[in-house]
Each structure stands twice: as C-alpha cells, then as structure tokens.
C-alpha cells in the first residue's frame, strides 16, 4: 500500500510541477478582447504581452522592458511566488525520487526513506501554497481591475478573463497540495 501511495503521489507531484512550470513560462494570465467584434485577442502574462489577430491568426508579442524595470506589483509578486513555487516543487520531486521504496538508494534504512518522503511532502506543501497565492493574487488583481473599469463606466467593450496560464497555475498548485497531503498524512 505504501509503495502504491508513494508512486501515486509522485505521479501527481510530477504532473502538477509541470503545470506550475508551464504556467510560469507561458504568457496568457489575463485575456482581453479590445472590441465587441472579437477582431483581436490579447494575452497578458508575466513576461510579455501578445496580441493575436483573429482574422488571419498573426500573433505579435511585446517583451516587457527589462526584468529590473518598474513593473506593476501583481507581475513582480506573481513572478516571485511562481518561481519560488517551481524551485520548491523541483526540490520536493528530487527528494521524493530518492525516498521512493522502488528506488535502491538507502534500501537498507526504510526509516530514512520514509522521512525523505515526509520531507518531500512538507516542501511540496510550501511550494503549493506559494503557487496558489501567486495565482490567486494575479486573478484577484485582474478581477479588481475589471470591477474598477465597470464601476467607473469605463467599460468600453473591453472584457477581462483569467487566461489559461492562471488556471494552470491554480491546478498545478492544487495538485501539489494534494500530493503533499498524500505524502504527509497517508504514509504513516
């Protein structure tokens, strides 16, 4: 039972970590259409902003000035939290691989392997919380930005939605959290 639970937690952690990495690297955190005719589709992300012309499919992207330039707080905080979550999830995966029962590393001491799995679960939990905070921070800021435009009657046909990168970050964080629960609560 323990080995099956470890492998299940490892698979979930691996998939969720890939989701977190993909969310951090991609640039579709906030989606808006400039007009009601849906002529263009704009994705804003952590690293650049891309506009896709819906008629001919041409996509152009503008890089942000510099990583050290002044950026909105939501971008800086989300970048920091997501990169930290990615690093913690990667460290947890490396620790978990060494702690799996099916790996021959430290085979003679199962207590140490169990502690490694438990430690990987704790690290994974910390990474998942940071990733969830980063994703939710960005999503709440997008919602507040849209609500401010609507409340001031500056709507002008601009429509904001959460992009697929934001949803991927939330899904990856929740998957890492579930894997950490499996590793910390269910192995004993």
TrEMBL record:
Keywords: Cell junction, Cell membrane, Membrane, Signal, Tight junction, Transmembrane, Transmembrane helix. InterPro entries: Claudin, Claudin16, Claudin_CS, PMP22/EMP/MP20/Claudin. The keyword Transmembrane helix applies. Its main location: other. It is a multi-pass membrane protein. It is found in: Cell junction, Tight junction; Cell membrane. GO terms for molecular function: structural molecule activity. Residues 1-28 form the signal peptide. GO terms for cellular component: bicellular tight junction; plasma membrane. The chain crosses the membrane at residues 118-140, 162-187. It comes from the Eukaryota. Claudins function as major constituents of the tight junction complexes that regulate the permeability of epithelia. Belongs to the claudin family. This is Claudin. The gene is Cldn16_1.
């Amino acid at each position: 039972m323990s080995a099956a639970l470890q492998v299940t937690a490892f698979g979930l952690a691996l998939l969720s970590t890939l989701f977190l990495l993909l969310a951090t690297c991609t640039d579709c955190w906030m989606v808006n259409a400039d007009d009601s005719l849906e002529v263009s589709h704009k994705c804003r992300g952590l690293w650049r902003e891309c506009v896709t012309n819906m008629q001919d499919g041409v996509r152009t992207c503008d890089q942000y000035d510099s990583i050290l330039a002044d950026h909105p707080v939501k971008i800086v905080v989300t970048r920091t939290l997501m990169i930290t979550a990615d690093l913690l999830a990667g460290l947890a995966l490396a620790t978990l691989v060494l702690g799996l029962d099916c790996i021959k590393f430290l085979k003679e001491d199962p207590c140490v392997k169990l502690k490694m799995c438990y430690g990987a679960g704790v690290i994974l939990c910390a990474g998942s919380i940071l990733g969830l905070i980063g994703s939710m921070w960005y999503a709440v800021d997008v919602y507040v930005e849209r609500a401010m435009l609507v409340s001031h009657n500056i709507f002008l046909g601009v429509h904001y939605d959460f992009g697929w990168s934001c949803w991927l970050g939330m899904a990856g964080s929740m998957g890492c959290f579930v894997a950490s629960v499996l590793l910390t609560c269910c192995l004993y």
